[in-house]
Design goal:
Layout: H1 6-65, H2 69-82, E1 87-92, E2 96-101, E3 108-118, E4 121-131, H3 133-180
Antiparallel strand pairs: 1-2, 1-4, 3-4
């Protein structure tokens, strides 16, 4: 078994420790960024969900008031097609359930439920669900970037360490060879 010189072993252990320390620091920084961005996106999705619920309930007020179920269904379908909403339940108190699209299996937030009224007259009920897919995609993308950055840093440290080690060894070997001649 080949013995490693104590000085070389110390250099290798120091380099390995440095690699672990930097990779750990980059990973910790990345996890903090992922957590912060997911939290931020969740708050933004909540604000957007609340405003979309209010906006859609106002858009449905007139069609429900004049008993234009077809118009109400068209408006609800347009919101569903826009991708802003994952699921929607719309009930007219005059004619019954107009739209009942259940949430997908994907994680979602909601339901956001609001009563639709006009001049104190209850017209219907609206329930909305919103997908958290964007939050998951963003977190996954950040994770991929952090793993790539950590890998690049580790490769740079290994390459630089290897280069420095070779320069030191070659320099010492040249001194020894010149001394032997």
């Amino acid at each position: 078994m080949k013995q490693v010189a104590p000085r070389r072993r110390m250099i290798l252990e120091s380099a390995f420790f440095l690699i672990l320390l930097i990779a750990g620091a980059v990973s910790l920084f990345g996890l903090i960024i992922i957590r912060y961005s997911a939290s931020y996106l969740s708050r933004e999705l909540t604000v957007s969900a609340e405003s979309t619920t209010l906006e859609l309930s106002h858009a449905l007020e007139t069609p429900l008031y004049v008993l234009s179920d077809e118009s109400a269904v068209d408006i609800a379908a347009a919101y569903l097609r826009s991708g802003r909403i994952d699921a929607l339940y719309l009930e007219s108190y005059a004619t019954g359930v107009l739209v009942d699209r259940a949430p997908s299996d994907e994680p979602f937030i909601g339901p956001y439920i609001t009563e639709i009224e006009r001049d104190g007259l209850a017209l219907g009920r609206l329930s909305l669900w919103f997908s958290t897919d964007e939050i998951r995609r963003t977190s996954r993308d950040f994770l991929i970037i952090i793993v790539a950055i950590s890998g690049i840093i580790i490769l740079v440290i290994i390459g630089a360490g290897s280069l420095m080690y070779r320069l030191v060894v070659v320099k010492q070997a040249m001194i020894l060879l010149n001394g032997i001649r």
